[in-house]
Amino acid sequence: MANSKYEYVKNFELPDPLLPGTFLLFRLDGHSFHRFSAEHNFEKPNDVRALQLMDHAARDVMEEYPDIVLAFGESDEYSFLLKKSTSLYNRRQSKIVSTLTSYFTSCYVFRWATYFPDKPLEYPPSFDGRIVVYPGEREIRDYFAWRQADTHINNLYNTTFWALVQQGGQTTTEAHATLRGTYSKDKHEILFSRFKINYNQLDPRFRKGTILVREEEPEPTPAIEQVASAIENTATPSSECEQPATSPDSAKSKKQKKRAVKAKPRTRVVVIHTDIIRDEFWSARPNILVE
Ligand code: ATP
Ligand code: ATP
Ligand code: MG
Ligand code: MG
């Protein structure tokens, strides 16, 4: 097709590749969710339905994009780690950021009624998205530690703040004033002595945030026919060396053999609420940082 005289404007579009061989960390965050949560009557300090909806949309994203190896969510934000070797959209920054943000947003809206059956959406929510490039494993571990520490700090503050308001009868201004200058141990003390709340026994979802990882599915018990066909495919026929190497049948059976032996284990995305800061999480899942 002949180019039009207008085509030159395309040259203004510059490539935006992300450095090869680096971890890509994609984070999205709800736009003005302070308002969105108020207009949709989210329970304070933590609306479980809203958190589960975020988790579901994030799981949808991970199922759609196999190169995402880990995700972490809290409040109105989610972080996704793409493996170092990913060639998703040729590592074009705006393509990755825009498609992932838009896919998450539509999944959030798509699944809204499952979590809020009695509360119609008042207006369309939106999320911002960004990618940060990290060179090594240390920074990736510290990134997730940073987000989980943030979850803890915010949740301890919010839990104490809302206990003062909802159970202690303070106004929001008074509650902010009560908490001004307090340390973590003071908030634990207020929660326990005034409201009989043992912070460490609260739902780990609120204290630790949500982690999404891929786990291998247990091997299904093979059906009898599959076993029979695998045996048939792996048995070396006595005449094999006499057959021409180019025989389509022989090529086909070799392919089948390979598939039977090297079938990739099926994985599924699982939701956990655990410590991501200490070594245990990472040493139990060495694959996250290798690829
Ligand atoms: P910005 O557009 O700059 O991100 P924001 O209003 O979204 O502004 P954030 O710092 O992202 O501000 O905070 C999100 C706010 O959304 C929280 O402070 C909280 O009030 C509310 N929120 C999000 N998720 C929940 C939830 N599950 N339960 C209760 N409140 C929530
Ligand atoms: P990419 O993800 O790279 O954008 P794409 O498949 O979306 O790939 P586009 O170049 O964006 O490719 O083209 C969009 C295609 O969608 C068109 O070629 C056309 O086939 C189809 N399409 C979009 N809108 C309409 C429409 N209103 N009616 C019929 N077909 C449409
Ligand atoms: Mg926000
Ligand atoms: Mg936020």
Automatic annotation (TrEMBL):
Q: Where is the composition biased (Basic residues)?
A: 253-264
The answer to keyword Nucleotide-binding applying to this record is yes
Q: Which GO biological process entries does UniProt record here?
A: tRNA modification
Q: Name one GO molecular function term.
A: magnesium ion binding
Entry's PANTHER family? Answer: TRNA(HIS) GUANYLYLTRANSFERASE-RELATED (PTHR12729:SF6)
The Swiss-Prot or TrEMBL record describes its family as follows: Belongs to the tRNA(His) guanylyltransferase family.
Name assigned to this protein: tRNA(His) guanylyltransferase
